[in-house]
């Protein structure tokens, strides 16, 4: 049996976090003593270890975060077999996302190797959006964020040529793999250096970036989440029957 402070120390969280996890049903209801103090069991310790392990990596992508929370919630209901199944699915999804992130870098490498298409044809923003199966607002947003600079005609209208179209295709691939705007902007600034390591650039914020989010280091974040999922499976495998 453990008191709040004791179990919090064992797991490495603040006592308030333990109380919040009970409110959110991430752990089983905690019985109170006659004096009102909470008393935690080994079941609670296990549930907190699962939550702590899965939340170790601050993945912010909605679906991934949602899957992690579902595992923790299911474990909190003491449905350990189902929680283990969800963890296996979660790990599979993370590994798929990581492969997707790597594949997107191959698109960039291919773009750098190939000679640009020679054509005098130009497109409007709407036409480009239709060709790439994205919204005009997405294209506008990428321009506003400095991912691409589009030349203008004498009348002031933007004219997207084949070069811009190819660059937008690369940006679309990177965004669909969940790379952040900051990461892509960093890549485009450094892409002309000899033999650039695309994956490293996308996942290594520079000293000039004042605010760094998880998606600015997507590859590292996914690897951390994969490690957390594997550690969680190990917890389930090591779990003994609770009395």
From TrEMBL:
<dbReference type="InterPro" id="IPR000551">
    <property type="entry name" value="MerR-type_HTH_dom"/>
</dbReference>
<keyword id="KW-0678">Repressor</keyword>
<feature type="domain" description="HTH merR-type">
    <location>
        <begin position="122"/>
        <end position="190"/>
    </location>
</feature>
<protein>
    <submittedName>
        <fullName>Putative transcriptional regulator</fullName>
    </submittedName>
</protein>
<keyword id="KW-0238">DNA-binding</keyword>
<dbReference type="Pfam" id="PF13411">
    <property type="entry name" value="MerR_1"/>
</dbReference>
<dbReference type="GO" id="GO:0003700">
    <property type="term" value="F:DNA-binding transcription factor activity"/>
</dbReference>
<keyword id="KW-0805">Transcription regulation</keyword>
<dbReference type="InterPro" id="IPR047057">
    <property type="entry name" value="MerR_fam"/>
</dbReference>
<dbReference type="InterPro" id="IPR009061">
    <property type="entry name" value="DNA-bd_dom_put_sf"/>
</dbReference>
<dbReference type="GO" id="GO:0003677">
    <property type="term" value="F:DNA binding"/>
</dbReference>
<feature type="domain" description="HTH merR-type">
    <location>
        <begin position="1"/>
        <end position="70"/>
    </location>
</feature>
<keyword id="KW-0804">Transcription</keyword>
């Amino acid at each position: 049996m453990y008191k709040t402070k004791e179990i919090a120390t064992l797991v490495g969280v603040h006592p308030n976090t333990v109380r919040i996890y009970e409110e959110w049903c991430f752990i089983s209801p905690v019985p109170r003593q006659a004096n009102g103090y909470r008393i935690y069991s080994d079941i609670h310790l296990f549930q907190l270890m699962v939550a702590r392990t899965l939340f170790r990596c601050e993945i912010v992508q909605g679906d991934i975060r949602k899957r992690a929370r579902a595992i923790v919630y299911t474990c909190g209901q003491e449905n350990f077999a189902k929680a283990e199944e969800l963890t296996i699915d979660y790990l599979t999804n993370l590994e798929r996302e990581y492969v997707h992130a790597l594949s997107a870098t191959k698109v960039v490498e291919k773009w750098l190797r190939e000679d640009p298409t020679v054509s005098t044809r130009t497109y409007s923003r709407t036409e480009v959006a239709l060709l790439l199966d994205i919204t005009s607002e997405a294209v506008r947003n990428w321009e506003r964020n400095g991912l691409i600079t589009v030349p203008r005609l004498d009348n002031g209208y933007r004219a997207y040529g084949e070069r811009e179209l190819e660059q937008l295709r690369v940006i679309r691939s990177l965004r669909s793999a969940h790379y952040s705007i900051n990461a892509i902007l960093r890549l485009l600034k450094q892409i002309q250096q000899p033999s650039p390591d695309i994956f490293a650039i996308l996942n290594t914020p520079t000293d000039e970036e004042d605010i760094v989010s998880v998606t600015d280091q997507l590859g590292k974040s996914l690897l951390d989440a994969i490690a957390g999922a594997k550690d969680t499976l190990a917890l389930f495998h090591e779990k003994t029957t609770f009395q």
